[in-house]
Amino acid sequence: MVIPVILSGGSGTRLWPLSRALRPKQLLPLVSDVTMIQDTVSRLGDRKDIFAPIIVANEEHRFMIAEQMRAIGVRPAAIILEPCGRNTAPAVAIAAMKAHQLEQDVVILVLPADHAIKDVDAFHQAIALAYQAANEGKLVTFGVIPNAPETGYGYIKAGAAVEVGNTSVLKVDRFVEKPDKITAEAWLDEGGYYWNSGMFMFRASVYLDELGRLQNDMLLASTAAFEQAQEDMDFIRLDKASFEQCPADSIDYAVMEHTADAVVIPVDIGWNDIGSWSALWTVGEGDQNGNVIIGDACAVDTHGCYIRSESRLVTTVGVDDHIIVETADAVMVAHRDKAQEVKVIVDQLKQAGRNEAVVPHKVYRPWGSYQCIDCEERFQVKRITLKPGASISLQLHHHRSEHWVVVKGTAQVICGEKEFVLSENESTYIPVGEKHRLENRGKIPLELIEVQTGSYLGEDDIIRFDDAYGRKEG
User: By C-alpha distance, which of 334, 299, 331 is closest to 317?
Assistant: First the structure.
């Protein structure tokens, strides 16, 4: 039996402005109609030898992940919440502990949540081969057969063949960093070099034993964080103090580069890690001019571009080999060759304290979503959508009042000592400092316009008294 471990802790800064820290690329539908994490889980299929997945994620994304799994009919075996990022080695260690708890000495399949794989049949064939090696105590990684001298990936240099069960795999000679163009071309000509996919397969106990031998401080801190974890609804919250003391490192550096049992299986599965906008241009369906166009756009005398419009018409004239991405609050334009450098923009925005670096225009909450329509000094207008059966917390604000206008559906409102119903085209006023709650008891989404006025309009001006989702703040 196999338990998939889905790693969903990344921030995807190279795909800004669509990907933001509070809604990163794995939670977005970038290459299909479903999000990347949904695609990652769905491609595992309904095989009886593969358990429900363990997902390791940033705690900020917990409700979005739970909702996206529910939308595809998957109930994870666990959703483990990291209070801070410590790279992949500790994340996999804690997932291995949980997997071992569920099924003693089980094989785990480690998959990043944000990869695209076109040939799913070949992917499953590779899993079957890797399972044989993992059962024999090997730590397996999947090396993608390169078709170009790619400089954006790390590589694995394969060694001699190793007989495992009824088949053979390749011993890992070494892991190598992202090369320059000349080096990548030489490796492609030489052969025996594979793109490092970041996917792994091994017995949970074998990985933990090797981690303890090679990085015992990391294992001890991870164990403490797991053993002192708290269950919160459908989530497992790691102990923050213990996890913060854990050294940060990747599986490659912490274990795979130093173990004698690392092997690589070459795969040709149509893999792409979607690490930049140029990668999305590569995997997208281009028109007769080589343009990949998503959304409302008009391209004249334009060639080799990736154009994505989220909220309005985008037009181009005489543009070649560029990335153009529009969202409701930002526009990003870059040459395709500079797509990896988008993260520099994000760093500068963070240094300037700009919300656009972190917060998406449409913000998701466990009860639904909201988006800002307009905002100036002392007022803000939001469009709020509340799912059927959902409610916001019983709360108050010290610095702002709110006006609610129902656009669609029926709202159940608590305001102070009063409780009443609002229908479409009806409104109410929530004074500063008044306890209030909004609930949707109907069968369709509730949509309303909220007008905030006051001296401070930040999201941290919320005092919660009761919350169905266990939140205290944020």
Answer: 299
What local confidence, expressed as pLDDT, does residue 474 receive?
A: 43
User: Which of 106, 126, 113, 115 is closest to 74 using CA atoms?
Assistant: 113
Could you tell me the pTM of the whole model? 0.91
Mean pLDDT of 74-88: 96
Q: Is 154 within 8 Å of 196 (Cβ atoms)?
A: yes
- Cα–Cα dist 94/219, whole Å: 9
pLDDT given at position 11: 80
Tokens matching residue 397: 């604000």
CA dist., res. 233 & res. 59, Å (int): 13
CA nearest to 460, candidates 472, 445, 451, 468: 472
SS3 204: helix
Distance CA 36, CA 29 (A): 6
Cα end-to-end span (Å), the chain: 39
The answer to whether 94 and 222 have CB atoms below 8 angstroms apart is yes
User: Span 317-331, mean pLDDT?
Assistant: 97
CA-nearest of 391, 351, 372 to 458 is 372
Instruction: Determine the Cα–Cα distance for residues 203 and 205; give it in Å rounded to an integer.
Output: 5
pLDDT of residue 472: 65
What's the mean pLDDT in 429-438?
A: 97
Contacts of 417 (CB under 8 A, 6+ apart): none
Q: Which residues, listed in sequence order, are joined to residue 382 by a DSSP beta bridge?
A: 372, 450
**Tokens 């049992």 belong to which residue?**
261
Tokens of 450: 């909220």
Q: At what angle do helices 88-102 and 216-227 cross, to 10 degrees?
A: 50
From CA 196, how far away is CA 2, in angstroms rounded?
Answer: 22
Query: What's at 114, amino acid-wise?
Result: D
Q: What is the pLDDT of residues 156-201, one digit of tens each?
A: 999 999 998 788 899 999 999 999 999 999 999 999 999 999 999 9
How far is 121 from 386, CA to CA, in rounded Å? 40
